[in-house]
Amino acid sequence: xxxxxxxxxGTEDVLPKQSYRWQFVENIMREESHNFGFxxxxxxxxxxxxxxxxxxxxxxxxxxxxMYTFDTKGGESVTLRxxxxxxxxxxVLENSLTNEGLPIKAYxxxxxxxxxxxxxxxxxxxxQFGIEEYGTSSPAADAEVISLASSIFKRLQIQNLHLxxxxxxxxxxxxxxxxxxxxxxxxxxxxxxxxxxxxLEKNPMRLIDCKVPSxxxxxxxxxxxxxxLCDECSDHFEQVKKYLSIANIDYKVNPTIVRGLDYYxxxxxxxVSDAIxxxxxxxxxxxxxxxxxxxxxxxxxxxxxxxxIERLLMVMENQGIEIPRPEPCSLYVAGLGGNAQAKAxxxxxxxxxxxxxxxxxxxxxxxxxxxxxxxxxxxxxxMVLGDNELEEKLAKVKNMKTGEQTELALDESFAExxxxxxxxxxxxxxx
Length: 431
Ligand code: ATP
Ligand code: MG
Known about the structure:
- This protein is of the alpha+beta class and 431 residues long.
- The protein has helices at residues 19-35, 49-55, 61-66, 85-94, 139-155, 171-186, 194-202, 213-219, 231-246, 291-294, 309-318, 338-353, 367-376, 387-392, 414-430; strands spanning 39-40, 46-48, 69-71, 77-80, 104-113, 125-134, 161-167, 252-253, 265-273, 281-287, 302-308, 331-335, 358-360, 381-385, 394-399, 405-409.
- The strands form three sheets. An eight-stranded mixed β-sheet has the order 1-5-6-11-10-9-7-8, with helices on both faces. It has a five-stranded mixed β-sheet with strand order 13-12-14-15-16, sandwiched between helices.
- A hairpin with a 5-residue loop joins strand 15 and strand 16 (405-409).
- The chain is elongated and about 90 Å long.
- The chain binds adenosine-5'-triphosphate and magnesium ion.
- The site of adenosine-5'-triphosphate has 19 residues, from strand 6, strand 10, strand 11 and helix 11.
């Protein structure tokens, strides 16, 4: 027997009976983005490797260890996107979107690829919803993007997601801070992991979010960035807090949040859940005022974040949040014999053309098996067509929930009459 090929480790299928959960969440993300004035951006799944090494940062875990990088047949190095911001920023520059008025407000719903150790909430192919706002240095924008995330969580009825915020300053406040970190961590060189030892000189802030337990233990008592902020960064942080309070959004200042990507400046934040264990960060983001410049553009203060859809769904499942199921088939038409089956096919088409869902047999089943199938898919109404019905041009349409039968003439107004019956039943259900 030929072997069945299995999926790649760290990837997941979203099966037809589960996809409504994704669609529900994605629809709310789209609607809320629209309400906040963000439009969708779609960028390619792969980009030149240099975009990520420059945009995300050479010393990050993502670039050092997690990227899916390969050479094309033409000998070019390309990388599957490990995150959405670098590609969006590239598209903004390449398409000169800055000429169309600022700020540029975009969102994406996309797959990402990272070579990580697969576990619950940590995959090699995962999905993100992300927000990008380019061309504003105002603290009101920081509060706006955070507010959008918060609105999405509210609409999804998620409880106990805590917002934690911090400021990691600008390159000038970080000069002094990095010196303080180097001095602090140098005293613990014996205990640091190899990776951290390597990063200590180049980018000591990375040591604060190292996930190796012995390193995070040391990082707990490291100097706090908040003691090193320059006046402008400090003032910005105060303003962000003020705007969050105006928007009625609770937060906690957590000076240990530095985020894993190099492009962040000033505000950084995470929404954390304690419901799904160690992979509890559902959403993370902040400002990246230097990113567009880093990628060859003008100075363009910007910000954004991404949330992991798999993690979000895990939190929702964990909290028992019910996701409304899509409405089942409105009418199942069973056909008995060749003529009746052709008529069933015709009726199904007219019902579908009228904007309602309808199904019939496409397998060649007998009547009993067809009715069993109608039951299984949860059809709201069913009807059987046989020689009698064709002769009398009359069919009995059965409400599968109440058992009530209604006779409808099989004429050109059948779809219209069925729609009325269907709407009346729907109305009864609502009462
Ligand atoms: P973590 O610290 O958990 O590794 P991160 O800092 O690498 O997260 P970001 O790059 O900020 O994460 O990505 C934003 C969000 O995307 C995360 O908060 C998380 O919800 C989700 N995410 C990141 N990596 C994965 C992954 N490998 N599998 C599933 N979701 C992920
Ligand atoms: Mg990570």
